[in-house]
Specification:
heterodimer; A: alpha/beta; Rossmann fold; six-stranded mixed sheet; 11 helices; 38% helix; 22% strand; globular; B: Rossmann fold; 2 domains; four-stranded antiparallel sheet; 10 strands; 39% helix
Chain lengths: 286, 275
């Protein structure tokens, strides 16, 4: 079981004056139970790509396999509802999709839609809310009375309540304060490591890619440009320059220091090792 | 000269959410001010109060000495441009071109000059090839570029950005920030940016830190960024250079305090060569 794109193309508004090809014959195989970052410039096709995973967009060409499901272009897709119960997709600004009177009702909406009983849905709702760090006292509140960051958590809990095997997040931390973003990314990492979920995160934040993900897929103009392990990705800075990617701060400092006579090794990826190394070099020099 | 003055501003969404509590500050004409604070700290609410999108409980907002009231609302809004975080909420035109034109039409810009202005700003934000696209079909970051172009094209005296580059890739964010800084230098407009980006804060003239509807600190970034305990208490992050400095101290290397990575690297290189 895995996720496999096979020459997948996607064209928006096909056969209209607004026709726009967003994906060109994408081949991509994603490993299960890994946390993978999808990065790339705005408009490179990241969101289009991930919206295929729960068949929200159907390919204009090619085919893809998600878990046990196969979706082939121009063929009537079946069993989409089952697929969607296995793949949870969290959009950009998911808080705009909250609509129920109470948080409890909002969280139960998804599970009930997939045929779960009222009681079970409520249990799932409580569990999901706890996962995102909010206690039961929120259940009877209106989702519309929360702050932006809290709304975001509730919206994500709504997807977690469906207990999907694959969790797809499109820029989940955009607009969150720094500590809120860290809590959110840690939650996804925990879901990945402790609960065995396959996690895909579309992000622009290289610090998040470095600190939380296993693999990284680079999208460029509707194509997969590269797919490597995170460590491999941040070692070769010439490649990052070529992609116009501003590396994470640790890598940037390493780059700047090495250009001016330091010898910090390329596999130094955290602030502690970096500083210990700098201290050694400076003292050695003295 | 003070261009924006906020005096004892107070606002509640309802009896449970007292979003802005007796806030006062002023912003100099032509300056670049950043406002930071955790989600729900009241930053966006203040921006909305400043242009009269929300009605205050009490207090005063003055723009160029003119109090914001129902009568002065139109005059004040013609001076102020604002870009919100989610651009979907502010698209009107059916194409990118129409959308940028809409603001200009409202400002009674000469129709003969309009095409030229639209082209100029579409170029600045790198969206020329999308002028005839539907705004709703663009990616999140592209939408933000269009929203920014639309407001900048109106050449407001005061420009407020509310997390308006949050969906751009880092390279795109740098590009857009560069465009904004260039325009700021050229036109002397007053720039207010609500942001979570600590590195952006280090580039501003003045920073206001909000927590729970109140201002907890304000001043020059190089002073504020050193107040670690208060920053952490407000759910904010330290600039990377200061995190490194603390870590280097554990390794018995003491540096003078620098809020930028460049400053820190310079100092380390000096240490490495002179010792």
């Amino acid at each position: 079981m895995s996720i496999e794109f096979n020459k997948v193309s996607y064209i928006y508004s096909e056969k209209t004056p607004f026709e726009f090809a967003a994906l060109h014959e994408v081949d991509l195989k994603l490993s299960e139970k890994k946390m993978t970052a999808i990065i790339g410039a705005t408009g490179s096709g990241k969101s289009t790509l991930v919206q295929h995973l729960n068949a929200l967009l159907l390919p204009s060409g090619g085919k893809l396999k998600v878990l046990d499901f196969e979706i082939v272009a121009k063929q009537k897709a079946t069993n989409l509802k089952a697929l969607r119960s296995h793949v949870g997709l969290v959009f950009q600004f998911p808080e705009y999709q909250l609509f129920e009177e109470t948080i409890m009702k909002d969280l139960c909406f998804g599970p009930k839609n997939f045929g779960v009983s009222e009681e079970e849905a409520q249990l799932k709702a409580k569990k999901a809310l706890k996962l995102v760090g909010l206690d039961d006292s929120y259940l009877e509140k209106s989702p519309l009375d929360l702050s932006g960051g809290q709304k975001r958590r509730v919206a994500i809990a709504g997807i977690l309540a469906m207990d999907p095997d694959v969790l797809v997040l499109d820029e989940p931390t955009a607009g969150l304060d720094p500590q809120g973003a860290v809590q959110m990314m840690s939650l996804f990492r925990e879901l990945n490591q402790k609960h065995g979920k396959t996690v895909l995160v579309v992000t622009h934040d290289m610090e998040h890619v470095l600190n939380y993900c296993d693999e990284v897929v680079v999208m460029k103009k509707g194509e997969v440009y590269s797919h490597t392990s995170v460590k491999e990705f941040f070692q070769d800075t010439t490649y990052l320059d070529e992609l116009h990617i501003l590396p994470p701060a640790v890598v940037r400092v390493r780059q700047m220091l090495n250009a001016r006579g330091f010898h910090v090794p390329a596999d130094c990826f955290d602030i502690k090792t970096l500083c210990a190394h700098i201290a050694k070099e400076v003292k050695h020099h003295g | 000269m003070k261009q924006i003055e906020v005096r004892n501003l107070d606002f509640s969404y309802d009896e449970n959410t007292h979003a802005v509590k007796n806030v006062s500050f002023s912003i100099e004409k032509g300056s670049y001010t950043t406002i930071i604070g955790h989600n729900g700290s009241g930053k966006s609410t203040i921006a909305k109060l400043m242009i009269g999108l929300l009605e205050k409980n009490s207090g005063e907002v003055l723009i160029d000495g003119m109090p914001l009231t129902l009568e002065s609302l139109q005059a004040i809004r013609s001076k102020v441009g604002i870009v919100f975080q989610n651009p979907d909420n502010q698209f009107i035109g059916s194409t990118v071109r129409d959308d940028i034109a809409f603001g200009l039409e409202n400002h009674c810009v000469d129709p003969d000059k309009m095409d030229e202005i639209i082209m100029e700003f579409a170029k600045k934000v790198n969206m020329v090839e999308f002028l005839d696209s539907e705004p709703t079909k663009l990616s999140g970051g592209q939408k933000q570029r269009v929203a920014i172009a639309g407001v900048l094209a109106m050449a407001p005296e005061i420009m407020i950005f509310d997390e308006s580059t949050s969906m751009l890739d880092p390279q795109g964010k740098n590009e857009i920030n560069e465009v904004i800084r260039e325009l700021h230098a050229k036109t002397k407009m007053t720039l207010v940016s609500i942001t979570h980006d600590i590195e952006e804060v280090t580039k501003s003239d003045y920073v206001i830190v909000m927590n729970n509807g109140q201002i907890v600190m304000s001043g020059k970034p190089e002073e504020i960024m050193l107040r670690e305990k208060e920053l952490m208490k407000s759910n904010l992050d330290l600039p990377f250079s200061l995190k490194m400095m603390k870590e280097l101290e554990k390794n018995k290397i003491r540096l003078s305090k620098s809020v930028t990575i460049e400053g820190l690297v310079d100092e380390l290189c000096q240490l490495n060569s002179t010792k």
